[in-house]
């Protein structure tokens, strides 16, 4: 049980670190732009 909890904490910290690094690099704007284009293509506008 202790090994499972420690691995969950390590994975949580790793995930938060990676998300933070992506935000610092400006990747959030790139992902949002791609998501908007994809949605517009699905609707048939783009």
TrEMBL record:
UniProt superkingdom: Bacteria
Xref: InterPro entries: CD1871A-like (IPR047708)
Protein name: CD1871A family CXXC motif-containing protein
């Amino acid at each position: 049980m202790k090994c499972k909890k420690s691995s969950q904490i390590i994975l949580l910290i790793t995930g938060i670190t990676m998300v933070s690094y992506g935000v610092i690099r400006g990747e959030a704007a790139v992902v949002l732009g791609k998501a908007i284009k994809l949605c517009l293509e699905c609707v048939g506008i783009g």
